[in-house]
């Protein structure tokens, strides 16, 4: 994978930390920094910093082939209730609105959990809420109109 400017900056930060801790001499530090800026791939960057801890604190265990600093950060998990809310909201069209109330309940609980835990899925929960409330409101309007017509007759 080709190295980005951010990858190079992270590698130079690791080198700076190693120099500040006394792990590198000035000339070694300068040579490695020039190798970082000449590197084209993430693998080349990993080789430049492979013998250094990944930051100011010592790194326990063996050095990985690709340092942790270059790995992608994991995405947060998708909230299950948010998915359920979106599914129930979409099923409102097929079930004549019977899944509207579960979509609303799941949507509100999902958004509360997402705020508390930092999971993904707020858009799904919001979709379920909107579709669920539209279904509940449509049914309420239908029954009100049906009662009004019956009262007027």
- Quick one: biggest sheet? none
- Percent of sequence in beta strands: under 5%
Order of helices and strands: HHHHHH
The total beta strand count reads 0
Give the proportion of residues in helices: 55-70%
**Number of alpha- plus pi-helical segments:** 6
Dominant shape:
rod-shaped
- Pairing-aware structural class of the strands and helices? mainly alpha
Report the mean per-residue pLDDT as an integer: 87
Any idea what the radius of gyration is? 28 Å
Low-confidence stretches: none
The end-to-end distance, rounded to whole angstroms, is 75 Å
Keywords, separated by commas or semicolons:
rod-shaped, mainly alpha, 153 residues
Description:
By secondary structure, the chain is mainly α. The protein is built from 6 helices and no strands. It has helices at residues 5-20, 26-38, 42-49, 80-91, 100-117, 122-152. It is rod-shaped and about 95 Å long.
What's a quick, concise take on this entry?
The protein is mainly alpha-helical and 153 residues long. It has helices at 5-20, 26-38, 42-49, 80-91, 100-117, 122-152.
């Amino acid at each position: 994978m080709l190295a980005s400017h951010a990858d190079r900056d992270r590698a130079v930060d690791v080198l700076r930390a190693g120099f500040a801790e006394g792990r590198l001499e000035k000339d070694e530090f300068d040579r490695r920094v020039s190798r970082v800026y000449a590197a084209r791939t993430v693998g080349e960057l990993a080789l430049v910093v492979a013998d250094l801890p990944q930051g100011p604190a010592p790194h326990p265990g063996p050095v990985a082939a690709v340092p942790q600093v270059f790995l992608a950060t994991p995405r947060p998990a998708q909230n299950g209730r948010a998915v359920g809310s979106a599914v129930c909201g979409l099923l409102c069209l097929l079930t004549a609105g019977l899944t509207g109330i579960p979509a609303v309940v799941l949507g509100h609980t999902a958004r509360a959990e997402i705020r508390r835990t930092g999971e993904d899925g707020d858009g799904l929960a919001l979709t379920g809420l909107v579709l669920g409330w539209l279904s509940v409101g449509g049914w309420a309007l239908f029954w009100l109109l049906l009662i009004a017509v019956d009262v007027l007759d």
